[in-house]
């Protein structure tokens, strides 16, 4: 990206309205993109996300869909449990060598 140019950011409602114009309004992606001043590729991406999961298609900045958040939490928990297991294995090895 060129220096000084900021990437445009669109809110959830804007994206939903744009996608609804295509899906429910029967308009083409190209015409909606022209009318709204949005990149066609962005609209195609938004439409795909909306059709895959209309309820949670645009969670917002830094927010994840509930199932993605749950997956992140479980991965973090698994990592902690594995670290604890490794520590216990090392301790067991140490005490079995030095405990005799």
Layout of secondary structure:
Blueprint: H1 12-23, H2 29-36, H3 40-52, H4 66-98
Describe the structure.
With 100 residues, the protein is mainly α. It has two domains: 8-63, Arc Repressor Mutant, subunit A; 64-100. The protein has helices spanning 12-23, 29-36, 40-52, 66-98. Helix 1 (12-23) crosses helix 3 (40-52). The radius of gyration is 24 Å and the shape is elongated. The relative contact order is 0.08. The model has no long low-confidence stretch (mean pLDDT 84).
Brief overview, please?
The protein is mostly helical and 100 residues long. The protein has four helices and no strands.
The Cα radius of gyration reads 24 Å
**Residue ranges: pLDDT <50 for 5 or more in a row?**
none
Q: How far is the N terminus from the C terminus?
A: 65 Å
Strand fraction band?
A: under 5%
| The first-level CATH class name of the largest domain | Mainly Alpha
Per the CATH scheme, the topology name of the largest domain is Arc Repressor Mutant, subunit A
Helix percent band: 55-70%
How many beta-strand elements?
A: 0
The biggest beta sheet is recorded as:
none
Helix-strand makeup class:
mainly alpha
- The secondary-structure element order is HHHH
Task: Please tell me what the overall shape is.
Answer: elongated
Count of structural domains: 2
Average of pLDDT: 84
């Amino acid at each position: 990206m060129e220096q000084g140019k900021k990437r445009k950011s669109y809110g959830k409602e804007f994206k939903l309205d744009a996608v609804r114009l295509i899906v429910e309004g029967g308009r083409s992606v190209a015409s909606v993109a022209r009318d709204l001043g949005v990149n066609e590729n962005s609209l195609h991406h938004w439409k795909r996300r909306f059709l895959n999961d209309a309820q949670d298609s645009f969670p917002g900045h830094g927010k994840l869909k509930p199932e993605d958040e749950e997956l992140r939490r479980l991965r973090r928990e698994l990592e902690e449990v594995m670290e604890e297991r490794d520590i216990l294995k090392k301790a067991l090895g140490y005490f079995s060598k030095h405990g005799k």
